[in-house]
Design goal:
Layout: E1 7-9, H1 11-23, E2 27-34, E3 37-42, E4 53-58, E5 61-66, H2 83-86, E6 90-98, E7 104-108, E8 116-121, H3 123-137, H4 144-150, E9 154-158, H5 169-172, E10 184-191, E11 194-201, H6 204-211, E12 216-217, H7 220-234, H8 246-251, H9 258-265, H10 271-275, E13 282-288, E14 294-301, E15 311-312, E16 315-316, H11 321-340, H12 350-353, H13 361-382
Parallel strand pairs: 2-8, 8-9, 9-10
Antiparallel strand pairs: 1-11, 1-12, 2-3, 4-5, 6-7, 6-14, 10-11, 13-14, 15-16
Helix pairs in contact: 9-11
Length: 386
Amino acid sequence: MNSPADGVLDRDGLDALVRLLDARGRTVIGPTVRDGAVVLDAITSADDLPFGWGTQVEAGRYRLVPRDDGAVFAHTAGPQSWKTFLHPQREKLWEADRTPDGGLAVTEADAGQPSYAFLGVRPCDLRAIAIQDRVLAGGRYQDSGYARRRTGAFLIAAECTEPGATCFCVSMGSGPAADAGFDLALTEVLDDGGHRFLVRVGSEAGQEVLSAVPHRPADPPTRDAARDAVDAARDRMGRSMPPVNLRTLLGASQEADRWDDVAARCLTCGNCTMVCPTCFCTTTEEVTDLTGDHAERWLRWDSCFDVDFSYLHGGPVRSSGRSRYRQWLTHKLSTWYDQFGSTGCVGCGRCITWCPVGIDITEEAAALHGELADRLRREKQKEPEQ
């Protein structure tokens, strides 16, 4: 929805936006080029953004490539998501020290957290943040660390105009347009009118920030060009999920032969869960010094692909690669609904791009659908005539 308060930023205005947020004490996180990839890191000016860089992706393949048009948001999702900052890989929970009298002094970890501003959040990642909000902050047992980091985080979306070969957000209903969950939403426009960004306001905080940086009112040509660019992206998705009820499909495919096929390829490395913006599983570990006088408890990411993840007395529940991949895919696309009321997949394509053997979640879902359809057809043919 367009608003009279919407505006247009040029490159200088984008730089002013970053500098304003930085000057207000926020840690601004945005895309930047490092180590041959577009990664998320702290930035202090628009010069840190990946102007003139794009990406080429396929199953198991990611390449950074130069662009001639100077676009800044023309890259696909990199190996990180905003989960890296809201739900970090390792977090100290507490530490304990032995006291001179033989007692134990336990100290909670420092609760101080940065005041984040996220710049360039893709619509699929906006949806992922909303999912993690329900999982980690919306239930009966809240993750207090996540809630502290999430509260007050300022979100600047970047609508998708350059989908990659592994993107399938349209079929998951999570893009390429940003529909909710942002303070400001940028749509990059490059045409005869110049390089600029349509800015849509999504909150009072967003309105206040926009009013504090140089911008001009949104004009019809820029609005039209922005809308056309997002609509064109919707028609250029590289992949899609089969148009079926995935929750029902996975529930009816527990004994499918396809699990053997994917198990023969899967390395159970857990890359898919590490790059996924919604996977949230953790474990705790205690570490101590050599004297035994100091100990710490840490929370860290874990993965359902780890053979010890399902360990109970006597051994792991899911010892085979087949069972662990089935658990991941079934939970992501089906039983997530039972826990949290939605799918756990947003169609970002990271699990496809960063799988070392190129396993494609959309291909697996389509294969399961085909196998189920064949089985139901054979069963129908065997039914006696009435």
